[in-house]
Amino acid sequence: MSGYTPHTPADVAAMLAAIGVNSIDALFAQVPARLRARARIALPPGLTEPELRRRMAALAARNAAQGQPVAFLGAGAYPHVVPALVDQILLRSEFATAYTPYQPEVSQGTLQAMFEFQTFVAMLLGLDVANASMYDGASAAAEAVLMARRLLPGRRVVWIARALHPHYRATVATYVRSLGDVELREIPIAADGRSDLAAVAGRIGADALCVVLGYPNVFGVIDDVAGAAACARAAGALTITVTTEPLALALLRSPGALGADIAVAEGQSFGLPVSYGGPGVGLFATAERHVRSMPGRIVGETVDAHGRRGYVLTLATREQHIRRERATSNICTNQGLCALAVTVYLSLLGRTGLRELALANYRTAHAVAARLEAAGVARRWSAPFFNEFVIRAPEAAARWEAIAAESGVIPGFPLGRWYPELADTLLVCATEVHEPAHIDRLVGALAGAAPRVRAAER
Amino acid sequence: MLLDEPLIFERGSPGRTGWRPPPAAEEPVEELPEALRREDGLAGFPEVSELEVLRHFLRLSQWNYSAATTFYPLGSCTMKYNPVVNEDVARLPGFAHLHPLVPEALAQGALELLAALEEALAAISGLDAVCLQPAAGAQGELLGMQIIRAHHLAQGDPRRRVLIPASAHGTNPASAALCGYEVVEVPVSGRGLLEAATVAALVDESVAALMVTNPNTLGLFEEEIEAVAAAVHARGGLVYMDGANMNALMGVAKPGDMGVDVMQFNLHKTFSTPHGGGGPGAGPVAVRATLAEYLPVPRLVRRDGRLVWSEDAPRSVGRIRSFYGNFGILVRAFAYIARLGGPGLEEVTRLAVLNANYLRARLAGAYHLAYETPSLHECVFSDRWLQEHGVHTLDVAKRLLDYGFYAPTIYFPLVVKGALMIEPTETETKETLDEFAAALCAIADEARTDPALVRGAPHRTRLARLDETRAARHPVLRWRPAAR
Amino acid sequence: MEIPEDLRYTTEHEWLRIEGSEGVIGITDFAQEALGDVVFVELPAVGTPLARGQAFGVVESNKSVSDLYAPLAGRVVAVNAVLRDQPELVNRDPYGAGWMIRIALAAGESPTALLDAAAYRAHVEAERAK
User: What is the dihedral of CA B341, B346, B348, B353, to 10 degrees?
Assistant: First the structure.
């Protein structure tokens, strides 16, 4: 019917004969008749391939795509150029349709790529070891807290920054709520847009499990991770950093160098389109001594019977299929193909390209901030940032959807939806995809009188 | 010819790069403070050309078996054909480049797709409300258990225990434990099935739920499922179904009719999204109407003729991830369901069960069949008849690689010693099944006449058997730059 | 399969050797063979008090993991740190270099409650027949 099943009537007849039944129906004899009677699936009939394409194209056409309108949106999903090569590799069926590499002799492609991925993640985050990825940055953050709980049993307080992306905070809260023996306490936002450690340092004591910070935080501001780590260490607690825009780490000091015990990130920026928020890929790294408590799949190097180098899934006894109820997590997948995209992307850009791309983002975002400043739209805080920053724009924030419809630009994200105290602000992200004409449109939409502004700049 | 290929870090030359960004603004900008700057200049990152990168990953790809190149009879994994048109449509710019935070007015196409997918999964399952957020089956299962926990808490009685059949997938007890439940194992009968009487005897008011897979991991339809569910419901418990085996149920029996209250789907199984070497998948959850209030936020709702995201769900278990789910995967599953339609999905199940029973008939003389009970879309054999020759399930699996097939699922379910679980799916031809059966029969013969050949397999793959013990005892989990 | 006569055993396949008021504990030859290549052993901290039958650690092989149970009550006075880097000693020499923990026996604890070599042998034979 659809073309995906190959059976001819002759095939079916021959197979039924071999089985020894008269009809396919007979194969369902064990299923109670009253269940069978109600089982028809009430969905419309199928489509041909061209009909399917038309249907999907019609749905896609009703969404804002690249450049129409142009969006200066980040806030956990970052628009970057995806080099042509990345998709060519992802479309190789040998990678895309491979199973989890439980039979390593015939999965060396996947396994070596994952070993390379683990290396990239460990290097980027400045720690010893990384796993073969988690579902996304948010669940990676939650799993990091669960790991801390395994390492320091008995401690119950998680100090979590209010300035960490609210989706991530909410995900951590959901994971720990079902455990019942861990309590979340908030590190407030300071007047400068960073996390206010001074306000809570006195209360981070012997019951503290970990301190969790965004790095950069949701406002694009760079928190004092080293200070937080010192504070946590003094109390015998662990430090966890969470990075939604890992491109920042090409320019910023690594979490490991700042004292993080576990560092996680969302890897979408590295070779994955924003794709309405998923699939992403969670990056997860930690110190060597904690490796047996690290969740998720891990690939290790070994040799075969002839001494040739190869790779296998290892340390599997932490995982669900063996430990069952004592597993470190219930996760039984990584984000295989997404992790491959990250690996291809980071290989392609490499040391030079990654640094140059980070610089380009930094410069573009800072130039946008400067132009907005010149047009009378000031930043909310003056702390250092990478490619996202917060501006005061009460009218634009209030008319956000209308501006998007009218002026062909989505001028950032109205933070009031996540932080009531910031209802007069917008979170603006600018990357290498934003061209001068786009920036003109943004400045115009926010400053109101664009032509006058540009004349003043000349 | 399978070429050798080192790690990407072992290739390249200083200063080389495969890709540079477009040049950025030249205006001077404030510099990052020294204390915040990267400390190592990204030392160790590769410096290779675009062609080197292409060649590297293409060579690696040649070392993989994959469902597209090779028959994968993996029980419980449903390695069916992943339609290539789905790759095309998922890459439409209107889907791929849609930022999750655009105003909903600018995402109505995406939201209509998600709403239609929710409705389709509700129709297929016979349940009422669907959440598309979970990134994988295991995450869906965890969500299901969290919903169950929320329900009992709302009733004022948290309950501590969850019943799980001994044949269950390992994620089941892991998910239960992550919710703070104590796991109680339910034995299966001599026919491999759950018996209502056994379950009724184990259920009391301390039991929050029974987790069940139907058909179970032996490929057998749980004939007493309605009575089993009734026994659990009678004591106020809920029934969770692991939907991994949906490929055997479409048009045959609906979980909602069986008494299931919550279930997860695996879109990368029944609904054809690619396995990707280990993900990404998606594990949507469906629930009965009475449990819908516990589903995660945000919920997709219709307001004034438009679809919007709503956080207005006071009894929700909360968020389980950032944004809305593995949207790119949801697009592919939607395309599959739309392409096949209701009749197409029903045919999938009929032909999947036909293929599995055909293989079962062809192999029943050569391998010990674990249970005589009729099976649906998968069947379980064991190595019992080979053991006298010193050949075990693992050896059979490795020898199959030499014949150009991927191995079946091995050593699972745990209730069968030396299990070989085979699920062909509906997209394989009769000829492929015949070749596979012939290979397995040949291996059974080899076990008798030349057991060393089987025990030493694989012989024709790029690498021979790998030393997994060494990898675990002395873990080397990354490449390191040479010490400076 | 080795079952030394001078040791006591549990049905969970641990062995105990009495040395004065202390006991040395490990897993039996049958256990190490059933597990396969041991890749990791998780042991308690020195000073940990243990009840009889309480889980004191975990032994992992490539494909399985098993809890370790204290045959008698006592307090951990030493652990075999060498197993961290050489878990294979459990396979090679389960009754000697593969020892796991040493405990100071709690007052009143007596090895007579445990299986002797003959009883353990019978237990293993019954398990094998299953």
Answer: 170
Predicted pLDDT of residue A454: 41
Contacts 24+ apart (CB under 8 A), B115-122: B115/B300, B115/B302, B115/B307, B116/B334, B116/B338, B117/B284, B117/B330, B117/B333, B117/B334, B117/B337, B118/B284, B118/B300, B120/A43, B120/B334, B120/B337, B121/B265, B121/B284, B121/B286, B122/B286
Q: How many beta-carbon pairs under 8 angstroms link A with C?
A: 17
pLDDT of amino acid B28: 65
The tens digit of pLDDT for each residue in C64-74 reads 788 899 999 99
Which residues of chain C are within 8 Å of residue B475 when distances are taken between CB atoms? none
CA distance A183 to A164: 17
The number of CA neighbours under 13 Å toward the Cβ of B390 is 8
Q: How far apart are CA B71 and CA B462, in angstroms?
A: 18
C-alpha separations of A81 from A102, A235, A358 in Å: 34, 43, 12
Rounded to whole angstroms, the Cα distance separating B209 from B201 reads 14
Q: How many angstroms separate the CA atoms of A18 and B294, rounded?
A: 49
Is the link from the previous residue into A420 a cis peptide, with omega within 30 of 0? no
pLDDT tens, position by position, B194-240:
999 999 999 999 999 999 999 999 999 999 999 999 999 999 999 99
Residue A317 sits at the chain C interface (C-beta within 8 Å): yes
- Chain A residues whose CB is inside 8 A of the C68 CB are none
C-alpha distances in Å from residue C120, one per residue of A344, C4, C26, C73, C110? 57, 10, 15, 20, 17
Which chain C residues are Cβ-neighbours of A294 within 8 angstroms? Answer: none
CB contact C62 to B (< 8 Å): yes
Q: Inter-chain contact B33–A384, Cβ cutoff 8 Å?
A: yes
Cα C118 to chain centroid distance, Å, stands at 17
* Inter-CA distances, A39 with A35, B229, B255, B342, B345, Å: 6, 18, 9, 11, 12
Nearest to A345 by CA among A235, A278, A247: A247
Confidence (pLDDT) at A181: 87
B180: chain A residues, CB-CB within 8 Å: 178-180
C33, two tokens: 């063979």
The average confidence (pLDDT) of chain A is 92
Q: Is A33 helix (H, G, I), strand (E, B) or coil?
A: helix
ipTM of the prediction greater than 0.90, yes or no: yes
- Alpha carbon separation from B54 to A61, A62, A119, C29 (Å, rounded): 32, 35, 19, 51
pLDDT digits (tens, 9 = 90+) for C32-67: 998 989 999 999 999 999 999 999 999 988 877 888
Following CA atoms B125, B131, B136, B140 in sequence, which dihedral angle do they give, to the nearest 10 degrees? Answer: -80
Omega before A69 within 30 of 0, i.e. cis: yes
Please give the average per-residue pLDDT across B312-325, as a whole number.
Answer: 95
CB contact under 8 A, A333 and B278: yes
* Amino acid symbol at A452: R
Q: Which residues pair with A195 in a beta bridge?
A: A189
- Residues C42 and C58 sit within 8 Å (Cβ to Cβ): yes
Q: State the pTM of this model.
A: 0.94
Question: Residue A366 and residue B29: Cβ atoms within 8 Å?
Answer: yes
Mean pLDDT value of segment B244-272: 97
The per-residue pLDDT for B442 is 97
CA A183 – CA A149 distance, rounded (Å) = 11
Taking the C-alpha atoms of residue C25 and residue A82, their distance in angstroms, rounded to an integer, is: 58
Q: What is the pLDDT of residues B125-164, one digit of tens each?
A: 999 999 999 999 989 999 999 999 999 999 999 999 999 9
Give residue C63's pLDDT: 72
Question: Taking the C-alpha atoms of A20, A24, A26 and A32 in order, what is their torsion angle to the nearest 10 degrees?
Answer: 150
